[in-house]
């Protein structure tokens, strides 16, 4: 069934009020803005299946396609990265629109990328240069609409929000990553 959503369905009442209250509280006490984000804990399940868990108990399984030893019945970690990128930007746009009084009628963000599987397999180019394991490019396509709002204003909103949306910022600014390795001793290991 194809149902048309009303503005109230797209921009829930109270979002703008909640965001304004948060902004006012942070203006009074800016130190409250800096916080530890909820950690994501990923635990290997079997083969190439991994289950990521949020502290609130929510879980999400990932797996690789059959060609890489997985079952292909779950999303891949790379897709999860793109989903995080797209959903973070969409959420940030929706929040900014609510603060600006823009009643969105459509918002969709599609994140796509291109990768070389040889990189994740640890392969090298013929000259010995390691193949990069991450995406070589990422593209974001935003579809947005709002009644009685000029295209230029919506484009400016997206451009502004993109520069401050957390996941896009982390990617664009190449946040340094600290890797700590704890090795447990397996009782069966020699």
Structural category: alpha+beta
> What is the number of strand segments?
5
Q: N- to C-terminal separation?
A: 61 Å
How helical, in percent, are the residues? Answer: 25-40%
Strand percent estimate:
15-25%
Rg: 21 Å
Structural account:
This protein is of the alpha+beta class and 190 residues long. Helices cover 34% and strands 19% of the residues. It contains six helices and five strands; from the N terminus they run ααβββαβαβαα. The chain has helices spanning 7-10, 15-28, 77-99, 117-120, 151-162, 166-172, and strands spanning 41-46, 49-53, 59-62, 104-114, 137-146. A three-stranded antiparallel β-sheet has the order 1-2-3, with no helix packed on it. Strands 4-5 form a two-stranded antiparallel ribbon. A hairpin with a 5-residue loop joins strand 2 (49-53) and strand 3 (59-62). The model is unreliable at 1-11 (pLDDT under 50).
What would the keywords be for this entry?
single chain; 190 residues; alpha+beta; GMP Synthetase, Chain A, domain 3; three-stranded antiparallel beta sheet; two-stranded antiparallel sheet; 6 helices; 5 strands; 19% strand; globular; disordered N terminus
